[in-house]
Structure formats: structure tokens, C-alpha cells
Structures
1.
Amino acid sequence: MRLPALLLQRERRRQGLQYQGKMMTSNVLARQLIGARSLVLLVVMSLGACGSTTLTVTGSYPAPLTSPLPLTATVLLDPAFRDYIATPSDDINMKIGAAQTRMMEQVLGQRFTSLTLVTSQPEVIDTDILLVASVAGVQIGTPGETHLGIYEVWIKYNLEISDSSNRLIAKWFMPAYGKTPSAFMTSEAKAIDTAAQVALRDAGVRLITDFHRIPAFHYWLDQREQGFSTAPEIVAPAAAPDIAPNAKENNDV
Amino acid sequence: MCNALVAVVCLGLLASCASTNIDEYRTATTPLKLEHSEQMVVLGRRDAGHYETGVDFSNCVGKVMSANSSLKVMPELEFIDAFYPWFEPRVAPKNLARLKRLLQEPALNNKLNEMNVRYMVWLDGETHTVDSSGSMGCSIGPGGAGCFGFSSWDDESTYEAIVWDLNTFKEKGRVSVDSVGTSYVVGVVIPLPFIARVQNEACIGMGKQVKAFFDAEVD
């Protein structure tokens, strides 16, 4: 193997012109140079393999095939939700804000007859309900931990549903789950991304199939359809009748 | 040395094959009809906790079924997206009675009619490594690099396909496939892999057998 002449000259000057009474040949010099540089490269690559993994969850989320609820809704997805970065472990950061925002917009857009998206608490709620979404937590499971040969992601959402008077109707903790098998030559980041996409799709499933079954919300919807204007008592019981200003009106039902 | 290397290569090529067993059950001996405007879809089961039927396997079976025939097979992901969320792992129908109830949703029923999907083929199973042995060591140094050693592993593919007729809501047949094979890596300075394509053999066997259920003219 031959190296550029300039490099060889520099190396000869550095090591001295003689070795055991003989001039060093270009091949011996070349082997020493390559060996040293290979060792340095190996050490740098090994150190580069350590450190944290940051991944951005991608994916497209289709509009669901469903009949909408007879409601108009305002959905609050604040900047904390839209830019959410989960840290399920010390060495993994997952940017799921953009993907979960896309999923919520697509799914909730079909769940109600009309949807208004806002990024901060509105002063006036001019729809039937206000829905506030936040992330309660994210966890992952890897083959190294579970010995199952799959990557798993759990995302837990907290949804608060209020009526047009901003009275709380229901709080719903909605867990979503996604998994993907580990595959040869697939990086951990790619596998976790895929599992997170499945989890977000699962969250969409919950919003379509279970949202109207939330007990307090279901009661409220039922009461509304029958023409009553009460919200179910899900907070602390009301005070004595002579203190609560609206107690007589509510008891007229 | 040269003769020994040739002998190892030949032995490896012969050994890294897969053997496949196929069983089938049909409700009728006459082939199933698929009109020119109708299509079918091949879907994988993903509701089990510890395994799932890969999308690559479903797509492989679909390709084998539609190759050189008039059968139209819709890609799995396209179908699942079109019918979202009703075929996601959490809510996908496990039996025909559940599917029938799902189709009471007007939006779902209209979409199915619009896309003219006549048959559903559900695949359930996985490919996994059942045994492994040997070891391989690779090293790199100033003088060069190389791998030495021998390792092998056994893979097993077990799948079952169930064919549903969406017009009559009846199960039309089942096919089960078992495929096993051993793969080797021989380290003689450079690692020489001899991979048994177990999942591929299972896919081809499954695809051809399910295709035989249908009256598929060659294009």
C-alpha cells in the first residue's frame, strides 16, 4: 500500500531516519500509520455509541370512519401538549408533541359535528363542550428489560370535559398502548418510533369507541338529550340549599 | 485449504434450507368465486401480548396470491387506514359474529360496499428462533481483521390463515403452515452466512395454498 509522499516524509522525520540500522520502508510506515489511526477511530466510534437517544415520533393518522356525536366541541391543545417531549428513561427522549396533535385533530374532527381548536383557555366557550387534553405519562418497555422480543410504549392522557359554562363534566384518564416486534438490523429508535405510532393510533381508537361511554359524560349527554340543563355532581357535594344560589332551579327537574 | 472451503460452502448451501408442512380445511370442494370488480384483503392478527403477525408477512402472502392471477388483493395498511379504527388491534373483530355487529355502523358498511371487499384472510402466527448454538469471534488490529468460529440457529414459522366470506358471513376454510430451518454462520476470516429463509418459505406455502381456494384465472 502506498501513501502520499508528503505524509511518508513527515513520518520519517518524526520517527527518525533509521530503525535497527535500516531505512524504514514505506510499507512499514504505512502499516504503522493505518494501525494507529484505526485504533483511534475504533475508540471514537465506541465512545459515540454511548449517550442518550432522541427520536421524533412520526406517522400519519387517518380520519376515523364513524358517525359524529351530536355535539360541537372546543379542544384545547396548549403548547405544552403540542411540543411535548417524553423522557421515559434516562437515555431516551421522545418528541411526540407534533404526532399526538395531528392524531387529536384528525380523530376529534370526526368525533363531533364541529370542532374548534385553541391553544389557550378561551374566555367564552361558544360550543357545547370544552375538551382539555394533557399527557399524564409515557412509559416504554424494551426487549432487554422484558425479554419478550417486542418494544412497547404506553401513553396516558388526561382529558377534562367541561360544558359551555365551564363546569367540569368528567375527567378521563385514557391509557393507550402500542408494540412492535424487534427485527434484525432495526435500530432501537426506529422500533420505539413505530411502537409510539401504534400507541397513538390506539389512543384514537379509545376516543372513538370509549369516549361516549365515560359514565359522567354519558349521564350528561343523556340528560342533555332529554332537555335537562344539569351537569352531574362530580365535584364535592353542594352546600346547604339556602347557600347554593341555583339549588332550587336544579331541584325543579 | 481451497478444497476444504468449497466443501464448507457446499455443505452450508445444502443445510440452510427450510422444510414446510401445510394443512388445509375447506368447507366446500368447489373453488371460491371472486368477481372481476371484487377484491380481498389479507390481514394479520396483532392482539396477542407477546407476538404479532408482521405486516411484511401479510404483504408477502398477498403478493404470492395476486401473482400471475386475476385475484385482486388490497394492501393491508391501505385497508386498515381506510377502515380506521375498526381493524386496529384493540377492536379488530375476532369472529364473524363480531364483524356482523360492526357492520351495523352505517359508515363502515357503506365503505365496505364501496370498496367491494368480498373476502378477508386473517393470518395469525409468528417466526421465531427456537434454538441456537456455537459462537463467533471477530477481532481487528493493526495487522488486519477477521472472524473465526461457527454459530447456528433454528427458526420456526407457524401460521394459520382463516378465510371469511363477507357476503354470507361464513368461514370458507383454514390453512396452517409450519416451516423450520437451520441457519449457519461460518467464520473463516470473513464470516460466511448461510441463512435458511424460513419465513419466506412459510409465506410462499401459505400464499399458494390459500390461492388454490379461489377460482383464479392466470392473467
Note: The helical segments of chain A are 5-15, 26-48, 79-82, 97-111, 143-146, 188-209, 215-225, 247-251.
2.
Amino acid sequence: MTDLRVSAFGTSFATPVLAASGTFGYAREMADLTDLSAIGGVVTKGISPKARAGNPAPRICETAAGMINSIGLENVGARAFVTDKLPFLRESGTRVIVNFFGERPDEYAECAAALSGHDGIDALEMNISCPNIKAGGLEYGTDPEVAGRLVEACRKATRLPLLVKLSPNVTDIVALARACVQAGADGLSIINTVSAMAVDARKRRPRIATVFGGLSGPAIKPIALRMVYQVARARLGVPLLGIGGIVSGEDAAEFLLAGATLVQVGTANFADPDAPARVCRELAAFCAETGVARASELTGALDVDEARLPYSPGG
Amino acid sequence: MTLADGRSPDPPRYFPSVVLENRTLAPGTFVLRLSGCGALGGTRAGQFVMVRGEWGYDPLLPRAMSVMRVENGFSELLIKAVGKGTRLLERSRPGDRIWVLGPLGRGFPPPEARRQVLVAGGVGLAPLLMWAEEAARRGLQSHATLVYGARTAADLVLLQDLRSTGVELMLATEDGTAGRRGRVTDVLPLDGTPRILACGPTPMLRALHAMALARSLECHLSVEEEMGCGVRVCLGCALPGTERPFLYACSDGPVLRAEEIRW
């Protein structure tokens, strides 16, 4: 019997597999379709201080082994989240991480404060990297200095473990990761969606109303693995949450080996609402099959001949 | 609540079904008969399921399909092969496993003893055949007329099943090869201020939407949008609403009242 338990940023998790933000609603939507207590935790839809209506349609389109979305960070707002959504999450029997963002820099700290002091929230995950709001996350998420200031402000606004979700749409993700950790981040979620575009040649139009959107699904797994590994190799001293195209237990194992302590299952939830629980079962089976007693032993256990690395990330 | 709301009394389930039969009705149009669908027993006409075969990661997302029939643990879906996913479904064979999530969403209001016009375009027929069969079971078929349109005669399917319901049937084809020549919206019998129930291509629904609002007719439209999950977590299937900025085809619909939609 494999031990899937893991602990990170002072919090214990029943398994290292969480449901990713924006793919699991506020968990109640999925409660009839999966066993929430069987997974490590749920990361909620991103919350902003005020409710947001989101972007015009079409908001999603399918691409090879993936999809592009531009939902526009639609959410109920911090106050409605705490009154209407948190009570269910609190009783759900799983860990709750609340993803949050602001439309302006000062709104980040405001939101972190508004989400603090309530029972039932185990950690906050800052979204500094969503490509889908105008003048929004992307700029914060691509400049280490700006990101660092933002994290510092949120650090002062909350005593909850503070995770930062990083954008892959950067040249040097290690520089960003380092800035966030130096500013007080307790963990890093790697990666958010990859900026992308799809074209309908017959209509001669982009397939997403906002033209660009975020690519997710198995198509981005190799990019995500590379970035998790790069940041892990920089040994910044905080746990990493690996995200990007995880569909199976073996996918999860790959991220753990690359250096993640926890993983998040995202787009797979759209095809299979039981995906995070299934990934837990498959990860346990993978461990049993490969002689691993504790899933946490996989973290960072990738066998790499570093002399063969073509360049030195974060060096 | 559930009947008037067009929703099943049962919560949705995610389960594997098995293809019993894949029946071709016209080129590219087929009916999948699935077993193991006991969880769909309470499905209301107009509700839908998300379906996906075991074909790997491409295409990744399940496909939303209106339910056409449920009986004794079986279900039937009427599908037209138009893209990657539906072409793979078209090739499915007896014994293949299809994952099903449902029943989902809000369906049509149930049959009543009042004048009702059903408008079906193409495979939009599925939920309206289900509705007509329900009307027949309740002895309410004489109150309904089904206007069913397609491009050409060969695309009009399941005519015998439709006739068996006893619902008055009007056909229309764009090329005039069967029934009236033209689109369904050209031949609608609107005398007696009927309630309209419609499912079909979006241009057809938009035309009905305008017509219903102009004439103050009660009108229920089964809408179609790009859909990722079917359960209101991806928020992909948004369409503009009148009372709220956005409605979700998966959970506010797929059947929406015309006045709820800002088209």
C-alpha cells in the first residue's frame, strides 16, 4: 500500500494531487461526480475583490491534444466567495487553496486580506500570470521586479501560506521564481497556460473572441516539465506545484520526479470529472509497481546527467 | 420542480457505457444505442450528455449530445459527423466503450394541453422526438405540430418514428426535394399563438428568437455553444443574457427562453 501523504508549506495533504484553478469551479459543481475526500485538495476558480463577468464568446476552442481558453477570470468576487462558496468547501473533506488576483496592483493585497481570517482556507495561490485580462496579470507575471513587489504586498496582507502561480510566457522563469521567493512566497505553482492562438481558415477568423488565449492540456506537458525542472534545479527552498497536461498517474509521477512536491490536474477534469481522484489511484499503482513506498520519495529523484544540460537555467 | 424545470430528478453521473448498435440513417448521420445508461433514466427531453470514446488525447474534450431516447438502461443519441470527435463516434462499433456524463442541463418544458409548435433543424430533431414521444405517452400529441427541416430529403431521418407519435408533421427542405421548399422558419404555423420549442443550427434559432420576441410568443430554444465540461466549471459555453451578462449553455440551458438571451 503506497503512502501518498505529503506535507508542504506547513500543511499536510492526503495525496499530492490537487484539482487546478479554473477547472473545478468551487468544487460543489463536481461533488456528485467524484470523491472530494480522495484527493489532496482543490484550488478554486480565481477570485478578485469584485465579481467579474468574463469575456465574450467564443471563449474556448479545442486544439491538438489541448484547448485554448479565454474565459476572462469570471468569478463571484471575494465577499460572495466567502459567504456562498466557502461553507461547502470547508466541509468538503479536502484541502482548499484559493486562487486570487487583482485587476490593479493594489487589489492583489486587498484580495489576499479579504480571503484571510476565514476557517476553511489552507493557502492562497496568487495568479500573476493569467494571459486573459487586459492590462492584467501577464505584465505582473513577466517582470521579476514587478512580481516581487506584488508578492511582497500580499505577503504583508495575509498569514496564510502564499503560493504564486507562474507564467510560462517568459524567457527566464527562474528569475521570476527567485524574485517571488525572495519576496516571501511559500510555494510556486508552475505553470499557468501558454499564450496561444487558433485560426479558423474557412471563416478567416481567430477561433477565440479575444484572439489570444491560454493553451492547456497534454500538449503543454513537456513545456511544464521543463520549467518545473529548471526551477527545482535552482533550489529556492520552497515546494513546487507542477501543473500542465497531467492526465494520468504516470504524468503526475513525471512532475514529482522533475522536482514538484504537489501536482495539479486541470484540463483533464473537463473530459473526466473524476480525473484528480483517478490520478491518485494511478499514482499509487505506479508507486506499487515501481517499488516506491512513499510517493513523496519521487520528488526531485530524476536521474539527470547535468553535464549534458545544454544551458544553465537560473545559473 | 424538476418536471417544470426540465431537469431530471436524479443527479448527473459519470459512467462507462457500451455501444450496442451504430445505425446509419443518412450519410454522416447515425444513431448510437448505448447500454449501461440506467443513470439517465430520469432524463427530460432537451437535457444532454457529454460523451467521449477511449481514443486518447486528441480530441481531448467530450462532445455534448442531446439525448434522443432512454429506456430500460439503454439510451440513444442522434449524431451528425461534423468534426474530429463526431467522426470518431461515427466509426464506433458494438462493444466499444463510451464514457457518459449526464443527464445535464435544463430541458424543454413538458408537454401540455395547449398549442405547441416544435421546430427541428437537422440532428436538432433528437430532443424534439423525445418530447413528441413523451407527448404521445401522455395522450397530448394532438396539441403539437413538429416542423422538421433539412437541406435535402435524404437528411430527413426517423420519419417513421415521428409519424408513430401522432404529432402533426410538417417537413421542409431547402432544395424542395421533400415537404415545403425553404427553411423551417418560412413555413411555421403560428396561428393560435403557440408555444415554440426549437433545436437546430444557431442561425435557425436566431431567426426564431427574433420572430418570437416580435410576436410575443413563448419560445424555448436549445442553444449550442463550444462546450468544454458540461458542468459549469470551464465557463466556456457563455452566451449573452438579458438579465445577467452571460448565460451558460450547459447549466442555465441548453434550453433557454428567448427573452433570456441577448442576441
Note: Chain A touches chain B at residues 22-25, 29-30, 32-34, 45, 53-62, 64-67, 69, 71, 74, 217-218, 247, 267, 269-274 (CB under 8 Å).
3.
Amino acid sequence: MEQETKEQVIIPVDKAKIKHIWMVTLYLFLITAGEFAIAFTLDASPIKTVIFILMTIVKAYYIMSEFMHLGHETKGLKWSIVAPLVFVAWLIGALLIQGDAIYSAIYGV
Amino acid sequence: MAGSAVVVEEDNEKLWQGGTAPMKASYGKLMMWFFLLSDAFTFSSLLVAYGLIRYSHPAFEGDAENFVFSQEYWPIPDMVFNGFPLMHGVHWPLVFVGLMTFILIMSSVTMVLAVEAGQRNDRKAVEKWMLWTIVGGLTFLGCQAWEWTHFIVGTDGGGSLLDGSIFYGANLSMNQYGPPNFAALFFFITGFHGFHVFSGVVINFIIFYQTVVGKLEQRGHYEMVEKVGLYWHFVDLVWVFVFTFFYLI
């Protein structure tokens, strides 16, 4: 009995699951390659910055949802991790406005 | 059959004492998630502080071809991070950090495969993929050591400080590339991330060791691999943001 419970049965590989992991990897590489292409073709502008940030968020989504498996957890767990990140959005807004104000105070523009 | 049913019941009781697992996650995994959330706030603060300080400095006006290092404005990252090991004096912007990104994403993938193998109780596969993950992490750390050395030593020409003297490389109070805060932020942000990678490699090694000596097999499940996997993916996740905000924009 004791022996039976401790015996490990190796479950065979689920090919579809492995394929899915490599597909997500491919997406991550394609997005990174896209970032490279944009870095060398577009001139610096607010639009370029926005494109980079959007691509970063897409990558972050794939890593969190698939690699960290958050997309397959319960709704409660998903939101208890994602919802508090709204504070970061506030921090970005607050500090960038502050940075602009410091610039104006120093350079008087 | 009866034997395995007993194991499941025991596991549940151990898990959350009351016999049920809130949000259908184990205690350890849930706490790892909340730790990572707090760590995400720390990294956000560092990166947003970078944004604030960069915003309070003038940007370089004009074409990138005419760019020279100056204390008067924030440098263009492409002009600072353009070296490559063993290639002296080349201008290859983003190539080396691109390679580092590639290495870290790959080690994240091998970690996913280790977690997948653990769920199948496949000890040999867990050992293999954990080892690849550790190799990837060490390679990344080696790249970062080179990157730091290159940054600290500086370029052949150096750059002039505000008093007109020529300075080579960087330290926490001055640097040849731009305003003093530029190098300070580089050291703090990539250093804090690098320290996370280092502790990740150490934790990965401990779990690899426990797999090899059969401790996890004896325990009956490989959940520890999932928990350290979460931490390792988080390190990769942070690098994705550091890459964008420090090197791309």
C-alpha cells in the first residue's frame, strides 16, 4: 500500500501542449523582431514610443497569460493580480507630469 | 486505486487546513503571485523614476547622425549601447541587448517545459529543462557583466564634463554619456534586475538539486518547480520592460 502511493507514473507528453508553448515562443520572437525593425526604420516620435509600449504590453500579456499560466487560473486570482496594477498607471501619470513641471521650473519653458 | 485517493485527501488538508483551496491555487503559488505583485511595484517605481528624471532633462535636438555625448541633454540609447563583445569600436545599436533578450526568453521557454515535465512526473525531463534554464540564466548574467564593464570603461574618445575635462566611462556620480543620473539609473535598474536574475539562478539550482537527489519525486509532486518557474518568468517579464524603456525609447 505504502509503496503503491509513492510510485510515480510518468504521464506521456501531450504534443498539442508542447506545440502551443512553441507557438507562444514564436509570437514573442516575432514581436521582438518587429521592435527591432521599427527601431531602425522610424524616426523618434511620440507615435514610435506608443507603438513600442503597445508591443511591450502584448509581450507581457503572453508571458503572464501563457508562461505564468495566469490566463488559465480562476477569475478571482486573475483579477487580484491584474487589478492592483492600476496603481502603476496612476504612478506613471503623476510622475511624468511632475517631471514635466521640474523641466519647466529649471529651463523656464 | 484506494491508495491514490487517500493521497489526494491528505494533500487538500495540508494545503489550506480547512480542506479547501481558495481560488483553486495552492498556498505557496498564491503567495508567490502576491510577492511578485509587490516586486512588480518596486520595478515600476524604478522605471517610472527613470521616466520622471528623463522628462526633467532636455532631449537631444537634431539628427541622430550628429549626436555627440553631452552633459546638457539626455543621451540617445542607440548611441550609448552599441558595442558587441570582441568587436572593438563598432556601431551596432541594440544588437547585444537583442541577444540578451533572446537568451532570457529562451530560458523562460525551457522553464515552461520543466514545469510541464513536472506536471507529468517526468523526473528526467525536469532535470534536463531545469539545467538548460540555469545555463540560460548564467549566460545572461555573463552578458550583463560584459555590458557593465563596457559601460564603466567607456569609449576611446570619452566625453567632456561640464568643466570641460574629458571623462571616460561611468560611475555613480559622473559619466561620459550624459547627465549624472543617466548612469546612476542604468546601474540601479539593470543592477536590480541582474540581482533578481542571480537569485533566480540560485533558486533554480536548489530546485534542480532537489530534483536530482529525488526529493521532489519522494514528495509526490513537482509544485516547487511551478513556484520557482513563476519567479523566473517574472524576471523575464521585467526584462521585457527594461528593454523597452531603457534601450528602445
Note: Strands of chain B lie at 159-160, 166-167.
4.
Amino acid sequence: MAMGQGAAPASAGVRKDGGSAGEIARQVWQSRWLYVFLLPTVILYSAYTIWPIVASIRYSLLDWNGFDSDGVFIGLANYSELASDPQFWNAFGNTLMFLVLAVPLRVGLALVLAVALNDPRLPFVRVMRTALFLPVVTTGAIVGVVMRFVLDPTGGPINVALLDSGLLDRPVNFLGQASLALYSAVAIWVWKWLGVTLIYWLAALQTIPKDLYEAASIDGAGRVEQFRYVTVPLLVPFLIIITLLTAVEATNVFDLLLTLTGGGPFYATEVIDIFVYRQAFAANIPRLGYASAAALFFGACIVLLAALQMAVRWQLRRRAGEAR
Amino acid sequence: MTEDLKPVSPAALGPDLTRRAFLYGTVAAGAAGAGGFTAFAQAAKTIEWWDQFAPLVPLHQKIWEEFSAKNPGVKIAYTQMNPADMMQALQLAFRSKRAPDIHSILTSDLSVTNQLSKAGWFAPLDASFNADTPFLKEALLEGMTVFNGKAYSFPIFSFRQHETSLWWTKPFMEQAGIDPTAGPKTWDEMRKAAQAMTKGRTYGLILPLQFTNRMANHVLDLAQVAGAPGRFDWRTGAYPFGSEPFVQAVEFLLSFQRDGSLHPASSSLDARQGRARWAAGEAGMFFDGPWNSGVVKGSFATVLDTLGAASIPLPSTGQPAFTYHTPPSGEFWISSQCEDPAIATKILQLFTTDAYYVGLAERMDQPPLDLSAVDRANVHPTYKTVVEGFKKVVRLAPEPLIKNPNVAQVYAEMKPVTPGVGEIVQGAMGGAVSNVKATLQQYADKLTAERDRAIKVVKDKGVQVSLDDWVFPNWKQGEDYTASHYKT
């Protein structure tokens, strides 16, 4: 391979100075098509991911209302204001609460359903899988709007059913009651995205060899024992990645929550995305610098959490290795 | 129009002729030459116009068509904006140098107006603009529509209006045993009427709790008729949100929820959705501005003649009650990116005529700057009723900016303070705010701190401004604070 051939003379110390630059140029030229094909991805990724991040870092150091062509440099003042802003911490707390409630619920419920729907003897398996996946292909914003009607305290079908059946004598204000709104939003989000996690689990379940179940069955294991001693251990690696993916998705609920509750009532469902949107666009006087600081600060916290999680996993694995 | 057609370079045309105008002119000249005409065809111009005044579109369209007929080659391209997206769209348009020639700015918040002016968004009206009526002259005020002595905009609506007129459907009012033409006069009567209207899945009152700006205005109007001065106490300059009238106003709204007569969906409704549900008969009463007649006529025409309306209900009868509104800001602004401010000014001048004010009244939106136009207009009786109510109740408030134009810099420096009154009402209704008085007081304290900070920042730059600019010792309850009051 060209790259390997090119690396040898440089490492051998031949023409170490001028030669290495020439060697690199030669390697690049030899692999030019590789770079050409990479170029669209690099350009698009830089334009739509790297550049916005870099620009946000710069904006976060400005006092900028968006009306002026540029803001005033204020150093880290936006970050220090964030640290003492109770509304930011409220949004931060709501985001974490959403994460803590929604992720286990979605992952757990999807696993239960996947185990049930993985049984080919169950009638209408395909219909049920499709039905559960259907909300995934619906736009989040549309789900938010529709769910406002579904959960409406007067004409919504859920309240109508509860009132008509005599279970309740007063309607439940699922989205208007501060103590209920976040839970209602979590339930809707889990319902909407359950199908994706279900597919992950079904794929994971289908990687488990049937021989293992047959062997366990011969050893006298019932369905519960088979699940506990065969299925669960083999699903653990999948659990980690599915949980991570779901957690990332649970921090991106802007479209659903904006249309469902707008972050209300009284900021009860205001997650970081909506806080940032409110500061940057919905306020009479936008604060683009402050909004950027909030977004970056939260992003950094998520990175930190992910790093912590990785460190803990690494530590656990190391200890397990030592124990063996 | 005749002109010699000679080849000229753009540079030779001077700074007044833009590249676009030059191109249009060249194309027109070429076309004229090719066709063998001796006259120079007038250059084609398109004036881009963005605003959110949906109910006024037919009126404005007529004016634009007449203007185009008299000024061949000038076209007005109108874009109706969704209020929720408008400021974002304007920001993006300005940054990408594609701002409309004329636009509204959605809010009458003076801090926004001043920040936009400071950021260079506006161009002044051309010298040809003629403010030839006394009420228009009075409305051109430094820091509001005039900046550095130049007029930039003008109001088309009267300051004599509020957003808390009570609207009802007559069958509901009859059912409550109250004269359906007069409606409830006091808070107690309204509360009892709402209770009587509440049956099954119909409720007495519906509120747009998700539209927190509107809720804040409802509370402000209700607090004012309960004795509060306004957004700040003009006698002392202090923010009064923790005072008894504001607490009473919020408690009054909360009482409907306690009685079970508030439509439960109120918490997730904005004004448009609330109005639609009220018009559909889900609730008997609805607080709204004068535009309700026009909107109902346009969207729910079948219920228009079942409507009743009155001025704002009072805590009790027998005592004079007033709401106070600051002088109006401008509605339409010429963008600094507009290439033809002279043409834009000529179009805007048509929005200052008596015919326009009468037409404006007939659209039944906000009342026109010349309120007497309502008497000459063909409008629904409910519109006349609420406008008559404004004449009795609404008074002109003092404005620090008029006392000291440097206050504009404080407004421009002040950052938004939240949660505001509208959010606090929403929180109280949703169970998130248990102590209304304390939360309102916190808001007042935060606003005071923010204003103090902004004053300090501006003073540190050497600008003459102080808290005294917010104090108007000669303000008297029930009186208009006119230009002469600032001089004494």
C-alpha cells in the first residue's frame, strides 16, 4: 500500500528534514482520490457542525442583542451570570429530570415489548411492531400540537373518557398543571420514540444464538430463568449503547416541548433547549451571547457526564479484570 | 417626462443614485430606445413591506394599488408576517442585507425601539413628510418616533385603548340573569355571572394564559382600575408590582379558577385559540382588545351579532377608575437598507389622511390615531361601545423618555427581567406560585435593580440621567399627562 511504502524511508531517517515534507506530499497525491471523496463530508461537517460550535464560543463572550451587526466583548460575564441565574438552573434541572425519567422508562418498556414481540408465536407480531414504530416517523412538532388536543381538559379524548366513565368528576389538566406537565411530556416523548428503541432491542435479541436457549431448556431452565441467565447477560453490551443513544436523544426535545407546552406552565417544562431559544429568539430583546453561553455550558456538562461514565466503566472493567 | 439619453457611468451619477436604480434606469432606457420611444420610462421600483397587521391588509392593499396607479413603475410587495416569527425574520434579513423597505417591529416596547434605532435599523422619513394635524404633531416625540431631531415613524393608532374590555355572548349573559346589553359592571358581578354560566363543559371565562404578554397587560389594566398608577409609580418612580392593586388583580383572576368557572384549557391557550373557543361557545366571557370585533367579523361572522362588550369591569362602582397608557410609538419604519426612502415616505404619508383613519376604524382593529374617525365610520356597535369606554377610562401616562431623551439609553441598556407578571399569573394558575404577593414583589425588586444598573452604566459614560427622570410630581390621577405637564 502506498502509505505504508512511504512511511518506511522517513522512519529510517533518510532525508529526515526536507524529505519528510516531500514524502507527505507524495502520500497525499497518491491518496488524492481518498481526500477528494472525503471533501464533501469535511466541508459540510465543518460548515454545519464545527463552524457553529466555534461561532457559539465567540458569541458566548459577547453582549449581543442580535439587532447590532456585532456584540460587545464582555469576557466570561455571560458564564458568571448563568451560574447565578435560577431560571438556567431550573432548565438544567428539568433537562436532567427529563433524562432520569424518560431514558429508563423508554429503554425498559422497549425491552419488555421487544421480548414479547420477539416471540414468533404471538399473533399479529408484524402489525404490532409497525403500530409501535408509527409515531417515530411523525414529526415531533406535529405530535406536540396533536397531543395538546388529545390531553385537552375539556374536549380531549382522554379526559372525556375519564369523565364519562365516572373515574373522575373533574378533568385532569395534564399540560396546564405545573406538577403534572413534565411527566405528561415524558410520557408523550417515550411513546413517540419507543419504536426506535424497540427496533434496537429486537436486533439485539436476534443476535442471541437459539442453541443457548435450547441448552438452557435441556438443563431445566424455564422462560424466566432463560431470560435471567441467558438473555440479560448477553444484552448488557447492547444496554450500554442503547442507553447512551437514548440519553443523547433525550437532550434534544425542543420541537416536541415547544409545541406541547412552550416550556410552561411557569417554566415547569422549560428544558435547556427552550431556555436557549427563549433567550436568543423569543425575548423582546434577544440575548444571543447569553444563549450561546447557556448552550455551551450545558454541552460541556454533558461531555463531562459522558467522560465520567466512561471513567467509571473503565474503572469497573479494570477491577473485574484484576478480580479474575 | 423627457430626458436626454446619454451613456453615463454609475460613478458619474453621484452617491444618490444606487447601483440598483442605475441598472433599472439603464434597462428602462434600453427598452425605451429599442421601442423607438423618446420619453424615458420611469424606473421600476418594488417596495418590500413586512408587517403583522393581518386585519388591515385589505385597507392597505387598496392604498398600495392606488399609489401604484398614480406612480407607474412603483409596486408594493407585501409579506404578512406571523407575529411569533417576525423579529427573528427581521434580524436575519438585516444581517443578510435583505431587509424589507418598510416594516413594523411588533412591539411598542420603547427599549426595543431604542435598541433598534441605536443599531441603525431605521432610516428617517424623507423631508417631504408632512405632519399636518395637531394629533399627529403631538405624536412625534423624541425617543419614540423621533431620534436626534429627525422623524422616523408615526403612530397610526390612538393611545386611548386597552386590552381588557370584557366581551361576552348574549345568550350566556341572559342565562346568568344579567342584562346582556350592559353586562357585568363590577368584579363581583362578573364572578357571579361566570359561575352562573358554568354548566357541563361550558365555562364562564376563558383566559389566554400561554400568551404571557397579554396576561401581563390584563393584570396591569385591572390593577390600574383598582388604584395602581402604572408600570411604575409616577409620583415616586418605584415599580409597584408588589402593591395591593396588583395582588388584587391577580387574585381576581385566580378566583375564577377557584370557583371552577375558568375554562380548564386556558393554561395552554394563546389569545387566538382562546378567542376561537370562546366564539365556539365553550365559554361565556373573554377579555380582549377592541380588535375583537374585527377578528370575530372576519373569522366567526355568525356569532358577531350575539356579542356584547363593555369597558373594563371595576372592583366596585362609585369610584372613578382609569387606566394609563404612554404616548404611542410608530407602527411602520423605513429600513436603513431601503434604497428609496423618498418613495417609502410618500406611501407612508397616505397613512395619515382622514380617509385612512376612517378606513382603519372600519377594519375594527386598534382605534385610529384620530378617535373621532370612529364616529364617521361604519362599525359594529360593540366596537363603538369599547371605543367610547376608552374615552372615559384611558388617560395619557407620563413617559420618562419625553422628560429626558437620554432615558432612551437606559432603555437600550436594560435587559429583560423574568418571570414577569404574565408568567407569575400562569404560575399561580398552574400551582407553581403559591405566594403571589411575594413573587410580584420579587419581580419589582429585580426590575428596580436592573434599572439602577442600567442608569449607572449610562451615567458612567457621562450621560445625564437619573432616577428622577422617572418621577413626575405633578401627575394627577384621572388626567392626561400632556406636553404642557413636562414643562412645569
Note: Confidence is low (pLDDT under 50) at residues 1-41 of chain B.
